[in-house]
Design a protein that fits this description.
The protein has about 120 residues and is mainly α. It is about 40% helix and about 5% strand. The chain contains 2 helices and 3 strands. Strands 1-2-3 form a 3-stranded antiparallel beta sheet, with no helix packed on it. The radius of gyration is 18 Å and the shape is globular. The two termini are about 35 Å apart. Bound molecules: zinc ion. The site of zinc ion has 6 residues, from loops. The site of zinc ion (ZN) has 6 residues, from loops.
């Protein structure tokens, strides 16, 4: 797959996800997601997961058999009649999530470089 084709697919997937998120909110779903910032180690679950409970629900967020709280850490908690949304999302990060992840990786790289320089190692 060429780079242009990959970029086109990523853009299409982001537009699809935005549209389905819009429809979900319009149809009264909570639509919270466990992956919020895109920074590795924060949140949990899959990037395409969205809460399928009605907006304003009192319990933890749920999609199918997984639940999560405000920190996004997911837990498997099966129920017989699990809720799900009619729109499946693409596992594509949002622009903000991608930007946060890039920034996080750059910070980690800078830290590793600093440690190597501090030890007198070549970088
Ligand atoms: Zn929810």
């Amino acid at each position: 797959m060429s780079t242009i084709t990959a970029l086109a697919y990523r853009t299409k997937h982001r537009i699809d996800n935005r549209w389905w998120d819009f429809l979900a909110v319009l149809n009264g779903y909570c639509n919270d997601r466990p992956v919020k910032t895109g920074v590795p180690g924060q949140g949990g679950g899959y990037s395409h997961t969205r809460c399928a409970l009605p907006r304003g629900h009192d319990s933890v967020h749920r999609s199918r058999n997984y639940v999560w709280g405000e920190n996004g850490k997911t837990m498997y908690l099966p129920v017989e009649d699990f809720p799900s949304q009619p729109w499946g999302r693409h596992p594509t990060s949002t622009l903000r999530q991608a930007r946060n992840a890039r920034r996080w990786h750059a910070e980690q790289s800078a830290r590793r470089k600093f440690v190597r320089l501090d030890r007198g190692e070549p970088y």
